[in-house]
Amino acid sequence: MQSLQQLQLLQNPTEAANSQSELEAPPKQVAQAMERLNQAARVIADIRLGADRVFEAFFLTSHPRTSTTDTSLQLLLKEDASMRQHLHDLRSIGKKLEESGVLTESLRSRSNSWGLHMPLVCPDGAVVAYAWKRQLAGQADVTLDDCRLALKAFTDQKRRFFPHIDDGVKMESRSKKHRASHSLLEHGGEEPFDCKTLPDIQSRLEKLVPNVKVSTYGRLSWLKRANSLPGSGSDDDPPEASKLVFQSSSKLRSGLEAEVADKVAVIELYVPSVFRAVVSLNPAGSVDPDSVAFFSPDEGGSYLYSRGFSAHHVYKHITEHASTVLQYFLGFGTGTALYSLLLWICSFESLFSKPCSKCGRLLAMDKKSALILPPLHRAYQELPLAANLDVCEAYHGGCSPDDS
Amino acid sequence: MRFGDELLLRSSSLVTRGVRIAVPPPPPPPQRTTMPVKWVLYWQPNQGSTVSTQILNEAAQCVESINGVKEGRWKAALNYYKPMLRDQSTHPDLPRDFLGISLADQPTKYYFLIRSQRLVVEADASIQLIMEKLQSYKSKVSIYFDGFQYLLGDFRLRVGRVVPVHSETIRGIVMEVEYLPISSMEKARKVMEEFVEIWHEALSKTSLSGKFVNIELNFGEFGLADTYTPQHTGVQYAIVMAHMIATVQPAARG
Fold first, then answer.
1. Where is the composition biased (Low complexity) (chain A) (predicted)?
2. What is the largest CA-CA distance in chain B?
3. Does this complex have an ipTM over 0.90?
4. pLDDT tens digits for A86-115?
5. Interatomic CA distance for residues B128 and A183, integer angstroms
6. Is B6 exposed, middle or buried (CB count within 10 Å of its CB: 0-12, 13-18, 19+)?
């Protein structure tokens, strides 16, 4: 990072001095964005440590023998103040990053920035840095090993998150056809169906897949529900707590429609005894999914959110595959991503019963992870125009036709 | 999701939890009632062969060949109880097949079964002490199960020998297969069936002659539902012992 900034200074001495200018040149913007990301990482680390200290402070208040009430109260207030400061800092860094296009969809919008791209924060938290691109272009002073590492990291991430993006002509024609089918859905097709609003999507899903329970929550009410699910070891009586949550969300519904739509940020799809999937919408109230995760129906706890990972291998692997599929649906840019994603998730109702379409078995040893798993892949290219979910063929990781 | 919002959410949950601590301590958390599905199988040697420790060793090697990771040992115990009566003939309705089982994954519990009446009950482990003091029923036959357990991804396997107490001869071999992600017997059925097939495929590469048998049980008769519980395990062990005694020849002495 330091070498990058030095390079920046060498190349653009006038710009480096002119930090007050509003229209900063792209290299400077990118360097600033990288620095802000680093700052954000430091603040997040501080917050994690602060959380531990807050817990410690709470522990002390509940054990009056180890310290007087006065000192523990002081400690609590101090930690509370420092946490709020950290979170405030983080929010302001986040706002700046969003304004400069880092955390939102920046790839498409930055077409006039000298051929450079803002750092992209990938779903797995990795940052694809500007520095690597320059290294690959041979413009920066790097070693051959740096180049190899950068290239490997790039291709790994591309293969993982964007397997459908290929330089070949064959993929282009397939993606054209799918783009057409997605816009057909938007403009009616067989049944006029507006998949732009959440209630429409919900009622359509209820008709297509009646066994899947679709529920919507605001972020805070989802956190409460996750903690009250059986298996979380929480103190709440699970049926009571979930009743409370449902009551509060139904109270919201009885209010203004617009207000309700603003609050929905989490969609839960639950197939009893098979899986629980959590989809997060960003921004809250929209129909734009930004992450998805699968969990066991018996799991519970605060790690049950759209960027969490299940304790079980089968759901962990499906979650990874799901983030690839989400990127695919988002890539069409037709606003149908949420409906397609939810429909695809519902195809996992048959997770433990539908054998692989290639090898005919339910369980198979997955070569990469050396685990025995059911078919975790479901075909997604034919969605969302499918009349029912039987067209979603199931495949093992190694049997999938997408695999080279 | 916005960078800072998620952490704000988590910290607000911290604050709400903190508010609860100031209130009188909540009651202890309810026990988890969901358990992963488990099948209990027993080794059925082919005609003419007997059970021996060699089966355990070969089975252990087999597990490792399908990427199993050894987790440690396990043990369980089963007792056959007989009523202590002065005059047997005056109480013809007392059960003759009263079993008590202590399971490896439930160290604080003890399970009672009366097979003929399809009854299964969970009790605290201290009941054994109470029974000894009461002397109304006495344990006439005690059987121990012990062996190794392995983790294969989402599956947990326990293979163990069946040994009557005060004896060194193996009476049989049992195997527990658990599928950790789900607790519905119906939903897990196909998964378990295919796993047992995969297991037998791996075993066929060894020199063992025999197979592990799963007994089809109607848990509903015992008042048990589709969601798996330790009572299901108790019932499976009781039935497995009955089958083993009827069909498996004990190993020859010496």
1. 1-11
2. 79
3. no
4. 999 999 998 888 887 666 654 444 444 555
5. 70
6. middle
Q: Are A366 and A396 in contact (CB under 8 A)?
A: yes
Share of chain B above pLDDT 70, in %: 82
* Chain B interface mutation, best of A55, A352, A361, A367, highest count of B Cβ atoms under 10 Å: A352
Q: Which residue has the tokens 């302001």?
A: A92
Two tokens, residue A202: 């919900």
Query: Would you call B25 helix, strand, or coil by DSSP?
Result: coil
The string of DSSP codes covering A219-280 is HHHHHHHHHHSTTS--SS-HHHHHHHHHHHHHHHHHS-HHHHHHH--EEEEEETTTEEEEEE
pLDDT of residue A117: 58
Tokens of A140: 């920066």
Residue in B with minimal Cα distance to A375 = B191
Give CA–CA dist A245/A243, Å, rounded: 5
CA-wise closest residue to B106 among B121, B124, B118: B124
- What is the model's pLDDT at position A103? 65
C-alpha A143/C-alpha A116 separation (Å) is 21
Contact assignment for B194 to A361 by CB distance below 8 Å: yes
* CA A102 to chain CA mean position, Å: 15
Say how many CB pairs under 8 Å bridge A and B.
Answer: 131
B9 contacts in chain A (CB < 8 Å): 219-220, 223
- Rounded Cα distance between A119 and B165, Å, is 68
What DSSP state is assigned to residue B95? Answer: -
Substitution target from A310, A372, A376 for chain B, most B beta carbons within 10 A: A372
Place of tokens 């396990």: B74
- From chain B residues 119-148, the ones with a CB under 8 A of any chain A CB are none
**B24: chain A residues, CB-CB within 8 Å:** none
What's the token pair of residue A246?
């449902």
CB within 8 Å: A231 and B32: yes
Q: What is the pTM of this model?
A: 0.69
Q: For tokens 């330790």, what's the residue? A: B230
